[in-house]
């Protein structure tokens, strides 16, 4: 039978997708490969694939997976580890490996073949994964490092990078395979025979090192030489050696563990493991380095050949065996950061004699790579800033105590090229001093760093302002991914604040495949949980901020729910269920009074204040009461717990949470709903929208409560946003759900204060921390915070473009395509790569018609809401749509609802 399918394979770990994704197809049209195959130390990795076909209505009927110990066996269709046979199922994501027990280091090769209602596919191209080191006894290596007299561990700490090396001999037999397992804290860079291993930067991923320490694995077979070899490692401080003392958590000075396993063709094994025989120095070119202050690099101290053999290391010291970091040493499942993009600067000016200001044209996160020529000892200083002052000099007040500066000392004579290794900056402008003459633009390149992940979404509309805001969001979101989602990338903070990412994470998940990152962050949150159940506001807890509230720690549940909805992955919910329950119970027992959650801490953080210089409003009429935030969130989260308990197999808990949430709703309505006026508490938009969106408002009051939201927004705030971080998470969808997409659109496109457009018109190329970020106190006005995006991106994809899960569906198994063709927009193009494949909704208004291109991936179906005029569909149009493959279901307001099987379709109706 002719094969009409292309299959892409994904391998995922029990908690998080990992390993290698092989994009394969029968006719090999796509050969995209995800690099950086991770090591895995979970006994049952999960396997996923994607079915691609040009044929419509393709549904998987069964699958057949083979997992083999060698490629040869796999090619012979010999699944010696696992042969599922034909399994009748439409499941194509997260199939748990169920074959023979997998021990450390086993390399597994796998492929899949699917039967569909339209025929059978060929076997996919093989993909593979490799097991990590599953048992502590697999490690022969020990942790090494040492303290140096130059380490300064008070105040702004100053600790130079450590260089470690180990020469070793291999015999002349052919090497079959060589694997390096390594973890260097805070950061490592590693080399074999002078060549850098891997393209990761700022690795490994940051954790609470007293709880968990992540190692990386590399296949280094191609790097080894017969005879003499050398391995070299540089260690930076990262989050392991404190950037500030006291204030930011300090673990220890840098240390590392590395194990290089070499297998010869004849089966002999040789292990080169970190131990006291390694040599160490702190006299290399990278001096002090940290994320807040920057890096100092003295090229005169370079040690050519230090990571090769031979090299004279007689002046180096002996490494010492040091204490363990404390946390469990385990495979890193989320991907490392790397240079993901580059930016060419757009201008350079001389703000004062010898002081040059480089403009990158974009507030970006990463560093500057430069080419420079000068004399030995010339000292160049690079200071990074997001903004300029009126006189053209850089504005650094909003960096607080972060120096955010790099220093480069030239070795002289030839062209030198450099970028830092163990720091990063959030910046648009760089002040350059110490140059002998005006440098030219072509000497510089901005390197953008964040966690390796695919950009999965695309959104473009006929409105340039929405496009610009979207672009700002895109830059802000990716710039704040660094193994955790940070609040900001520039000042002396850069922490994983939970509240900032609650609903935002869902919007982000349309743009990026952030599955691994957020699954990892949930682990960080769990590790940060206190013995008594309290969940802190920051994770990993480099800052110990634990204030007990529902809105920040609530992100723990909201993000687990997001991973289920957006990626169809319920494992995070199951894994974290006990900790989540413990937290909910802790909050209830401690702070619930008569079914009202009395405790809150941050309020509706960063709402637009009454006067431009304020950070926080003091006007009681703008402030949403603590217990209103606490109780609405408690109710919403209890309902998530009902869902989670059912998924995790605790029906009694589900019932308990459901009953309790009913009592909370009742108490809340009797205390805060003003029945005669139809609003909650003091009638803030936030109080009303949370109650409405979370389903607390009695049916009879929904309309009037919504009317109050609209009135407040239009009359008191002239069609502008009046909420902070909490209310904004529900606002845009709430307005659309109740029929006021026009008002949501107005809020989205406003250019006057407060609005995202106001930020744009005031020069923002990312999203600000404050609506009034250009006028408020610099103590808290990061120009690159994403928290105020709220549900804007979810709304843009889910409502303007119209791509969401159909009710009851997760992971876009059944898609809802329901665009809102609001006045003012002529077209919206949205696409998003779900776990099943590309979902597309491109619509435009043309000559009174609504023209719509949609794509529904194989093995999914869609509920398609076709907008029509006058609440009815023209019979001819209906016939055409049915002819295209749609099944007419019903009319729903101004939509004709059809169901469609997989495929691409072009629809047209008169508006
Ligand atoms: C600020 C952070 C963050 C916010 C907390 C409450 O310092 O930048 O965005 O969540 O405060």
Summarize the helices and strands and which ones pair or pack.
Blueprint: E1 5-12, E2 22-23, E3 39-40, E4 46-53, E5 60-68, H1 71-75, E6 82-83, E7 87-88, E8 95-96, E9 107-116, E10 119-120, E11 127-131, E12 144-145, E13 162-170, E14 175-185, E15 187-192, E16 195-196, E17 200-201, E18 212-219, E19 227-236, E20 255-264, E21 269-273, E22 279-281, E23 286-290, E24 294-298, E25 317-318, E26 320-321, E27 328-331, E28 337-343, E29 347-352, E30 355-372, E31 379-385, E32 387-388, E33 394-395, E34 405-409, E35 416-418, E36 425-433, E37 444-451, E38 457-461, H2 464-479, H3 504-511, H4 515-528, H5 555-567, H6 571-591, E39 592-593, E40 596-597, H7 626-648, H8 651-672, E41 673-674, E42 679-680, H9 685-693, H10 702-716, H11 728-737, H12 741-749, H13 756-761, H14 792-801, E43 803-805, E44 814-817, E45 827-834, E46 837-846, E47 849-867, H15 875-884, E48 887-892, E49 895-910
Parallel strand pairs: 3-11, 18-27, 24-34, 44-47
Antiparallel strand pairs: 1-2, 1-4, 4-8, 5-6, 5-7, 5-9, 9-10, 9-11, 12-20, 12-26, 13-19, 13-22, 14-18, 14-20, 15-16, 15-19, 17-28, 20-21, 22-25, 23-24, 28-37, 29-30, 30-35, 30-36, 30-37, 31-34, 31-36, 32-33, 38-45, 39-40, 41-42, 43-44, 45-46, 46-47, 47-49, 48-49
The structure holds alpha-L-rhamnopyranose (RAM).
Structure description:
It holds the Pfam family Bac_rhamnosid_C. Its EC number is 3.2.1.40. By secondary structure, the protein is an alpha+beta fold. The protein has 5 domains: 32-131, Immunoglobulin-like; 139-334, Galactose-binding domain-like (Jelly Rolls, Sandwich), CATH 2.60.120.260; 338-451, Jelly Rolls (Sandwich), CATH 2.60.120.260; 457-800, Glycosyltransferase, CATH 1.50.10; 814-910, Sandwich (Maltose phosphorylase, domain 3), CATH 2.60.420.10. 21% of the residues lie in helices and 31% in strands. Strands 17, 23, 24, 28, 29, 30, 31, 34, 35, 36 and 37 form an 11-stranded mixed sheet that branches. The protein is globular. Alpha-L-rhamnopyranose (RAM) is lined by residues 487-488, 493, 497, 499-500, 602, 605, 785, 787.
